[in-house]
Design brief:
single chain, alpha+beta, Jelly Rolls, 7-stranded antiparallel beta sheet, 4-stranded antiparallel beta sheet, 23% strand, globular
Length: 270
């Protein structure tokens, strides 16, 4: 038995490529500047940490919420608003053209994959140049030092749509979860300790339990195998940008494992 994620499905990859060809040919973006990832779109603290070439400066801009969870500003409010407007524009275009928008993953029925409409190159630069230096320090044992790929999407929660997210782990080595705002009540995040694929459903101790009220404009950075979920949105509309940061090297190694990794054993022993 292996403990890692399954390898990519070639047929799925072919469908994704075909869909992105259609989008690249026919879709006219509302905010083409999103594809440039201009430095003015980043929060000042994030720019300062990266511009001086010292990833440890980013640590100073983070709030340690316990259990290896970090909260940080990445993008400006203007960038967040532009992204939400782009997602709505993309959905309207797809509907008018008779296309069915691929949803982010098997757990979310609403939202869109932002890589599909041109944000894959800039977000890859964000992962490799912006997040990897920090992840190399705090998430090295789960592949943080070798991030080279990602899957990025916006999810939506509202009464009458998806209202909550069940307990799970991400198909990622490191996850960036950015609250894009809008007006809502509820939707708090809860975390219950890091586990490998084999031990996702094991019990947690009190020290594993961390609840976070997600603040619009702020991002939570955590290991992908940090078990978590989102509570019910009671009112309004909550949308988040999720970037699953991945490492092809770490994934290849993980698929060869037959025993629980040390980081998971330590987490269960707490």
């Amino acid at each position: 038995m292996t403990l890692g994620p399954p390898p990519p499905d070639p047929s799925h990859l072919a469908r994704v490529a075909a869909w992105r060809d259609v989008v690249a040919r026919d879709y006219v973006p509302l905010h083409p500047e999103l594809r440039a990832l201009d430095p003015t779109m980043f929060a000042a603290s994030f720019v300062d940490a990266l511009s001086d070439g010292r990833p440890e400066a980013l640590t100073g801009a983070l709030i340690d919420r316990g259990s290896e969870l970090y909260e940080v500003e990445v993008f400006t409010q203007q960038w967040c608003a532009a992204l939400l407007a782009e997602v709505d524009h993309f959905e309207r275009w797809a509907h008018a053209a008779g296309h069915e928008v691929p949803r982010p993953n098997s757990m979310n029925r609403y939202g869109a994959i932002v890589d599909d409409f041109g944000l894959q190159p800039p977000l890859r630069r964000l992962v490799v140049d912006g997040l990897r230096p920090f992840a190399a320090q705090v998430f090295a044992e789960v592949g943080g030092a070798a991030l080279d790929d990602h899957h990025a999407f916006v999810v939506e929660y509202a009464p009458g749509k998806d209202t909550a997210l069940d307990f799970h782990v991400d198909d990622a080595e490191v996850t960036l979860n950015l609250s894009l705002g809008e007006d809502f009540d509820g939707g708090d995040l809860y975390f219950r300790g890091r586990r490998c694929w084999q031990h996702v459903q094991t019990s947690c101790s009190t020290s594993d339990e961390v609840d976070i009220a997600h603040v619009p404009g702020r991002a939570i950075l955590h290991a992908g195998k940090h078990r978590h979920g989102a509570r019910i949105v009671r009112r309004g509309r909550r949308r988040n940008l999720i970037v699953w940061c991945r490492s092809s090297v770490y994934r290849a190694h993980e698929r060869t494992l037959v025993d629980c990794p040390e980081w998971c054993q330590r987490s269960m022993a707490r």
